[in-house]
Amino acid sequence: MSKDTQILEEFTSSEYKYGFESNIEADSAPKGLNEDIVRFISHKKEEPEWMLEWRLKAYRHWLTLEEPKWPNVTYPEINYQDIIYYSAPKQKVAPKSLDEVDPELRATFEKLGISLQEQKRLTGVAVDAVLDSVSVATTFKDKLAELGIIFCSFSEAVKEHPELVKKYIGSVVPVNDNYFSALNSAVFSDGSFCYIPKGVRCPMELSTYFRINAANTGQFERTLIIADEGSYVSYLEGCTAPMRDENQLHAAVVEIYAAKDAEVKYSTVQNWYPGDKDGKGGIYNFVTKRGICAGDHSKISWTQVETGSAITWKYPSCILKGDHSVGEFYSVAVTNNMQQADTGTKMVHIGKNTKSRIVSKGVSAGKSQNSYRGLVKVFKRAENARNHSQCDSLLMGDRCGAHTFPYIESENSTAQIEHEATTSKIGEDQIFYCTQRGIDEESAVALIVNGYCKEVLNQLPMEFAVEAQKLLALTLEGSVG
Amino acid sequence: MSNAIKADLKQNILNNFKSFEAELNGQSRSEVHQLRRKALDSFESVGFPGVKNEEYKYTPITKSLGKEFDFNNISKSGTIESKKVNDFLIKDLDAYNIVIINGQFSKEYSNVSSVDPKLSIQSLAEAFAEQQALLSTHFAKYANSESDTFTALNTAFSKEGVFINVDSNYIVDKPIAIYFISDADREKVIAQPRNLILVGKNSEVEIIESFYTIGAETSFTNVVSEIVVGENAHVHYAKIGLENDKAHHIGNTQVYQAANSVFNATTATLEGGMVRNNMNIVLDAEGCEANMYGLYLLNGKQHVDNHTMVDHRKPNSFSNELYKGIMNEKSTGVFNGKIFVRQDAQKTNAFQSNKNILLSDDATINTKPQLEIWADDVKCSHGATTGQLDEEQLFYLRARGLSKESARAMLLYAFAHEAIEKVKSDAVRDYLDKLIKERLNKNFQ
Lengths: 481, 445
Hints:
The complex is a heterodimer.
Chain A lengths: L1 H12 L12 E3 L6 H10 L4 H16 L22 E3 L13 H10 L3 H8 L2 E6 L2 E5 L2 H6 L3 E4 H7 L1 H7 L10 H9 L2 E7 L9 E6 L9 E7 L4 E9 L7 E3 L2 E6 L4 E9 L11 E11 L5 E8 L4 E4 L2 E4 L5 E10 L4 E4 L2 E4 L5 E10 L4 E10 L7 E10 L5 E10 L5 E10 L2 H9 L4 H17 L4 H14 L6
Parallel strand pairs in A: 3-7, 6-8, 7-9, 8-11, 9-12, 10-13, 11-13, 12-14, 13-15, 13-16, 14-17, 15-18, 16-19, 17-20, 18-21, 19-21, 20-22, 21-23, 22-24
Antiparallel strand pairs in A: 1-2, 3-4, 5-6
Chain B lengths: L1 H21 L8 H16 L14 H8 L13 H7 L7 E6 L2 E3 L12 E5 H7 L1 H7 L10 H8 L5 E5 L9 E8 L5 E3 L2 E6 L4 E11 L4 E11 L4 E9 L4 E11 L4 E10 L2 E10 L5 E10 L4 E10 L5 E10 L4 E10 L7 E10 L5 E10 L5 E9 L3 H9 L4 H17 L5 H18 L2
């Protein structure tokens, strides 16, 4: 047992490796939030009038809302007037090729191991890199443009494809949806925009790397993915953030629209700074992610690996409106030290013969709290709706907690809903079984945790799986070999 | 709108408490009364649950009560003919019978005179006067007014009900059956019976609580039962709901278990308008075992909400739960099961299962099986399913010559029976079986 304790100690004491801050001059707004700030952001981004109106509407609605208190997490009150809502790296001319990108900026990416050139050459991944709030480089754009695929930063989309943005923004996550989505709608700085035209199968994985940089900057990205009839896209999102003591708020919004026969696969690896051993610092990650299967036979699949952030509060959801549409949610959430995670999904069955699948794997260690909260709702006309949910929790150490709050609501007699959940720890007998076969204890723990998460990790695209495994290993350092 | 109802109801209750206090004849300085006042304070601060209250999210009890009651007259006694009372008694059950009419202990119909000295059964009002030591140790010590507003309401007006004390090392020779009857024949009725059941070390007892209404008026029953299970003691408990379609029922069963004790519960709700059953079990020692079974058969516009909570406080305890429901027509079923494992409660084993069948497109089921685990060396699992009858099973029976109706009834009966087969006494089980069959044939075709 003492070896176990030692492993856990090593695990708990492992430091955040991606903590550094690059010195790029930032063009920041003053602290605080009011209508002027909203106007300032909109002006900075040279947005049209309708966009500003939309932001102001969201801001005014936000003022009437109260911060939600129901998640199973605790944190000091956030002072929304103490946050800088806009910060853009100074750059006068938009870069046309990688060579024009600020070398210091590129060095930052290189430290993270996502050299744009390397990516371009070796992996064939188009990377829309977001450093702080402005997209600085977009690759593979020409290649995608040949197919009619639009993949650009949000502000570019507002300028160049206003009709698409106007039509779909807020259609999945309305401005008045919740406290943080309203905040995001008012002050979002940038993000990614993606449109796949009819019948096109996107030939490569689209990917955005988010990175929070300058101190005291909340990041409010907005991502909008539109998959038109019969199209397919796989979208990757991965995050790392520099180490810092002050808590940072991150309230992103992701909207996915899937038309008839379209399929969208959205994968996330999140490894933001979780705070130190005593829970000091770390990112507050309050995200609204939602997709709508608007057309028949459409499919949206969420896969997430959550290892970072002091507090994670997010529920990637699917609204299954089209008949025969499919929603999937695969999640691994690992919490350590003082981390808190309240995450899960919502599957809303509206159309006939809709199907959803939920697989959630939680691992809690240290003094962390890990909650699964999910809703499966079957409306009256959702005949033959089918859901299977499975949420398992693994506990490492006796100071952590694992909680499950599934809501199942059915109004249709032909629906079949199944939910199962288990909570357990790595059994002494399992470890014994491995050590008996010559596997040392540390590798045994690694083996078991890997096997436990496999079902979800298998869902990740090849290019991403490597990074996910790296991050899992980093978070579970000491216990995963 | 609902806020206005809330405020009105609350104000009526606060007014009513003053007249209730005046009737107590100078007892208002007693220890018990201080508890009542405290409970009223917690009720006053919380009030009736609104639509945003998580615990009452799916059960709009406040709205429904607000429509029907003004709460200006909370406790009332009633008289019922003995013939009617006899109709309710469970056939072939040899038991100590206690009859509670509109929340009042009826000496006339209860047969508790010839009991062994190791067992005492009396009205709670009597016990307040005669059993002060026991009451001050146990009364309102388990059912927490702060955590549930209806418990607070009951405690504030607690006066009548049943007190049962089983001494140590005594196996009660026959079951104790408590019949709660609301007489809503002439007017609306509100009853708030309060029960305290103490079971000593190494003892065993079976307790049956069943609820009925007479007449077609609306009734509201807000019952609280506190059950203390001593070391090594075994308690078998059954709660049977047979009130009418206009009845509102809030029941709180609060169980406290000492070391190596066993508590087996079956909660069967076969009739009722809007029913809420709270079953809270605290396992405050090692080696405890708690088994909970539940069944709800609903049709029409009936609404039944089962909330269960098992609080594992100490290591090496075991809990097991199985709740089953069949919803027909426009009925709504709610299940909320919570397993709470505290940090010290290592080596806990807890299982929970909820299975539902929806028979109509207008029926609704909301289920929320919850786990909150703060210890690492535990085995906890839960499962929930919602579906319909298996086509293949139906086909199997029909291929053997059964009509569609009887095949359905047979499968539903088999589904339902599992939830009540652990009831201890044969007479009660047969009684339930018969009721289930009747209902499946009558309402579920």
